[in-house]
Amino acid sequence: MFSKLIFNTLRDARRFWRSSFTGAARSRENLRARIAIGLHFLEYGSALEGARPGHGQEKANQLAADIDTFIGHFGPDATTEIALRTLEGYLAFNAGSDIDLDAIRQVVARHRDSRDTGLRGGVETVTADDIQKHGMIDFMSFAEARHSIRTYKKADVPKSSIAQAVRIAQQSPSSCNRQTCRARIWTDPADIARITALQNGNRGFGDQLGGIAIITSDLAHWEHAHERYQGWIDGGMFAMSFAYGLHAEGLGAVMLNWSVTHDQDDKLRHLINLPESELVITMVGFGVLPEKLKVPVSQRKPLDYALVLNAPLPDAEHEM
Hints:
This protein is α+β, with helices and mostly antiparallel strands. It has helices at residues 2-19, 28-47, 57-74, 78-93, 102-110, 128-135, 139-144, 159-169, 189-196, 230-248, 262-272, 303-306; strands at residues 181-186, 211-218, 251-257, 278-288. The longest helix has 20 residues, at 28-47. It is built from twelve helices and four strands. The protein is globular. The model has no long low-confidence stretch (mean pLDDT 94).
């Protein structure tokens, strides 16, 4: 058992090393990730109270250079459009200062005609009233009404509902707003059957599913060793938001775990032609709810198990 643990751990480490840009930005996704990190740094820096002209200038110069490199090699896309919008906001923030931003201005001017003007970047002003107006819902009732569904009606799932659930999942937080996650979805019964045959937790209901989603996170967006687990974190949040999105569309869903060793993982990768850089986080089965069904009670533990509030900290002089 220990040797199996070591073998699978080494396989994970190799995949991270080969896919991430720990050594250098080698691929399109590596460079796209570095652009996302740079623009996010400028966005949140400009949104902080007390932000001063010139903040993040080194990051802004690197971002401009990365945009130039990316467009030169791969052409413009949504990432470069958002980054250019962010640089425009950065230039506006520093307007009137004597800081040398000519290199950034040149990049923005050079690529102005290549952009899709429907995308945004930078910062915007919102109010507490705006946030609360749209956010104050009875979320407890919404969450309590969600169940892991294992009984489905034989009916097609509307593609519009699937798309909306993925849009909702895209609103999940992600490290440096890198947005590494994808939902790879199949709705054909034959395809669903081939995929669920590789997953051992759908016995008795897998043939009822109207769709199967494989949630992935792309390791090509990570750089440092301390980020080696971040794909699982971002992917878990994305998967939960996707399940809530399906719930909001009136559909049923069930998480189908992918806790497997590399031999089983390789079978799925071969079946769906998954790039090496993408981690399989979990599967989500979903479908149309029947009029009436039974679900597990799944009683939650008492709140004091999950909530640890204001636990005492050691005196400062005893810190390591």
